[in-house]
Amino acid sequence: MDNVVDVDEEGNQRMLSENSTPYQTQECVLYGSIFVKNVPDLERRLAGLCDPGCEEFYEHEMSFSLRTSSTSEVKTDIKLRRRFRTEHQIQNYWQLKYIGVPEPDQKCPTIVRKEISSLVHSQDMMTYAKSLGLRMDYEYITQGKLWTKGNIKILHSTLTRTLRAGTYDSSSLKSMSDSALVEISISLPESAEYMPAAKTVRDFADQLMPLVNMEKIDYWKKMFSTPAAPARR
């Protein structure tokens, strides 16, 4: 009996090894939005462009920041994400994602940034986050679908927020907008040249027009901008 091998476990380990990506990766990403009433039209377009099938998700996401200096101009973004399931043991698994500052490449057609993802198991995630020195900026609930086109990921999701912190039943959730968020991204090894992948993402995104206009949003400029001083009278 000591020599018996769990075939399923061995197969799962082999699959994780084959599908694993380098610890630190680059991410090319574009963002867009579409009215919720037009999401069915977008899904029909994606069904024709993407690989067969899609995966639905319903997740709780929290965004944290870590100040890396005495000033507020430098900030590290950490996102925690868990999938809402009925099984209690699944609830304790969280995706921990570090998002770096985008590359200042004006010629690149997409946002390019460092991204590190890992899986964390904790029954008290907030205590763990606080022990890392993280401070939560905001949280929200996402519900939508994930599509793939080769190694390109396409997500569209609606965002809701809770009216009472720590309470996530349907009566406590409120929609943040009448639009759905659309995200197209591709992950690369850290040392890989990102321009070919960025052009591939841009070309795919252009096929979704005029339903949705995917943009390279300069969100980091707002993140690091400081309020202007009031004019003297």
From TrEMBL:
Quote the gene name from the UniProt entry. Cni-mdt-18
> What GO cellular-component annotations does this UniProt entry give?
core mediator complex; mediator complex
Assigned keywords, A-Z: Activator, Nucleus, Transcription, Transcription regulation
Q: What does this protein do?
A: Component of the Mediator complex, a coactivator involved in the regulated transcription of nearly all RNA polymerase II-dependent genes. Mediator functions as a bridge to convey information from gene-specific regulatory proteins to the basal RNA polymerase II transcription machinery. Mediator is recruited to promoters by direct interactions with regulatory proteins and serves as a scaffold for the assembly of a functional preinitiation complex with RNA polymerase II and the general transcription factors.
Q: Which Pfam families match?
A: Med18
Full protein name? Mediator of RNA polymerase II transcription subunit 18
Q: Does the keyword Transmembrane helix apply?
A: no
One GO MF term on file is: transcription coregulator activity
Q: Which Gene3D superfamilies match?
A: Hypothetical Protein Pfu-838710-001
| Gene Ontology biological-process annotations | regulation of transcription by RNA polymerase II; termination of RNA polymerase II transcription
Its quaternary organisation is:
Component of the Mediator complex.
Q: Which InterPro entries match?
A: Mediator_Med18 (IPR019095)
Q: Does the keyword Kinase apply?
A: no
Q: Where in the cell is it found?
A: Nucleus
The entry's family comment says: Belongs to the Mediator complex subunit 18 family.
- Using the record for this protein, list the coiled-coil segments as residue ranges, or answer none: none
Domain of life here? Eukaryota
